[in-house]
Design goal:
This protein is an all-beta fold. Helices cover 0% and strands 50% of the residues. It has no helices and 19 strands. The protein has a four-stranded antiparallel β-sheet with strand order 4-5-6-7, with no helix packed on it. A hairpin with a 5-residue loop joins strand 4 and strand 5.
């Protein structure tokens, strides 16, 4: 669902109909599985269950770009903290870092042979945590096609990740527990959350 300031606007997401002056963004077929704003709040991305990603002007509802998921379904996306880049993960384990100027890949990394399920940018924007369905987490250079380090998160199905404030650790929230990992060594630092629900939310106190 989408509500922009005081003016309500309905975007058709993954259909072909535009219905203004309504209070929510709804796909009549129920095909939208994720939505997210960019850092500036001017763009809205919607991920369809068919693996397609569409980018909208958040103020006007006009479609800006569409990425097809026909041959390589998109499974997850994340906007960089600074404007200019969008990270997109695919079912085949590929990670693509798209340039917002033309929505074309600036970098592409074969992170895994499993579907990518979760992405998290470092607050500085120079690193990106990428989780695959097999529990492997890769820390990638966000401005190059390079994997810096890998770790295996023993937390069940990974739902959310966030970097610690000092940038040295990664909090991984899964279906069985929440765990903090040291990025340099990959070892487990703590289990602050104990048993966790897969749809919970992770918050790190700065």
């Amino acid at each position: 669902m989408f509500l922009c300031h005081q003016d309500a606007l309905s975007i058709p997401a993954h259909t072909n109909l535009l219905s203004p002056n309504r209070e929510s963004l709804l796909d009549s077929a129920g095909l939208v599985r994720a939505v997210g704003f960019d850092a500036s709040g001017t763009l809205l991305a919607t991920l369809g269950r068919d693996g397609s990603l569409r980018i909208w002007n958040a103020h006007t509802g006009v479609e800006v770009a569409a990425l097809s998921g026909d041959s390589h379904p998109i499974t997850v996306f994340a906007s960089a903290p600074s404007e200019g880049m969008l990270a997109v993960g695919y079912r085949d384990g590929q990670l693509r870092l798209l340039d917002r100027a033309n929505w074309q890949p600036r970098f592409s990394i074969a992170v895994s042979t499993n579907a990518l399920c979760c992405l998290a940018y470092h607050p500085g924007g120079h690193k990106l945590a990428v989780a695959a369905a097999d529990g492997r987490v890769s820390i990638c250079e966000a401005r190059a096609d390079q994997v810096l380090t890998n770790l295996v998160a023993d937390v069940g199905a990974i739902a959310r990740m966030t970097f610690t404030p000092d940038g040295r650790g990664l909090v991984v929230h899964g279906s069985t527990q929440t765990t903090v990992y040291d990025l340099a060594s990959g070892r487990k630092l703590s289990d602050p959350g104990g048993t966790a629900a897969p749809r919970g939310r992770v918050v790190v106190d700065p």
